[in-house]
Amino acid sequence: MKFLFTPALIAPIAMLAACAAQNEPEPESAVEGEEGAVAAPESGDAGGDGLILDTDAPSGTVLIASGGSAASFDPECVITETGIAGIENPATLGDFAEAFPADTALAFQPVYMVDFGALCALSGGEDAICAIFESYDVDAYDGNIEVMAMGVYADQCRTAEGVGPGTSIADAINAYGDPRFGFSYENEAREYVSFAEAPDAYSFRAESETGGAMQVQGNRPSGRFGGDYAGVEGDSYFETATALPDARIWEIWITPLP
């Protein structure tokens, strides 16, 4: 997913998710270079922290307009051990929302995956940067919800070593050393990949078109995966150091260290 991640564009691009639920509406404010992009919503119910809750968003999603000044927002989207795009690990969803330019539209998804919800800035209707929270008993947006990690999915975002979503596992190995892919049935069989020399704050997930098309016999991760588990044995946890040929990173989480 390629996109131009600048403060001037992030709010209009984010609203594409809402537009998908409508019948080709006329854009309120087109942005040069971004076909079909529209401005953040001007209507809705006022929510906490001075945000606007858009009740016309697609089912299961609430669009929230940031009221932040974003003085530290970094359009180059550098990933560090303590944050993304100049947004340092936020304590709450309200802190995350306030870190973006004013009127940036964010998508609140209380069921993002099993056990987790997310508040995400979008690009082209896809997740770009998200604040991740534990979703137990959460069904409505509240700025006081605690953030446990930040996730990055936009392939413009990169660490100082040049690694980010879309980076091939081969290039990630050059930056961070030998990989280790693994999944456990006790953790929804989600595959994660670690690297011998990567910062402890980073958690990676990989994908592979080869893996998606494989008819793997026996145990395999659920969803996207990049490791080759052919012949790997185990009980509930399975691990391999071998990547599928076209494996690449699609998600990085940044988790505050103790």
What's the quick description here?
This protein is an alpha+beta fold and 258 residues long. The chain has five helices and 16 strands.
Feature tags:
nine-stranded antiparallel β-sheet, 258 residues, four-stranded mixed β-sheet, disordered N terminus, globular, single chain, alpha+beta
| Total E-strand runs | 16
Percent of residues in helices: 10-25%
State the secondary-structure class: alpha+beta
Rg is 19 Å
How is the main sheet built? 9 strands, antiparallel
Unreliable spans are 1-50
Mean pLDDT: 77
Question: Could you give the distance between the termini?
Answer: 33 Å
Shape: globular
Strand content: 25-35%
Strand order of the largest sheet: 1-2-3-7-8-9-10-16-14
Number of helices: 5
Run of helices and strands = HHEEEEEEHEEEEEHEEEHEE
Structure notes:
With 258 residues, this protein is α+β, with helices and mostly antiparallel strands. The chain has five helices and 16 strands. It has helices spanning 7-14, 16-19, 93-98, 169-176, 209-213, and strands spanning 45-46, 52-54, 62-65, 78-80, 83-84, 87-88, 105-113, 116-123, 126-134, 149-152, 158-159, 179-184, 191-195, 202-207, 237-240, 248-254. A nine-stranded antiparallel sheet has the order 1-2-3-7-8-9-10-16-14. It has a four-stranded mixed sheet with strand order 6-5-4-11, with no helix packed on it. Residues 1-50 have low confidence and may be disordered.
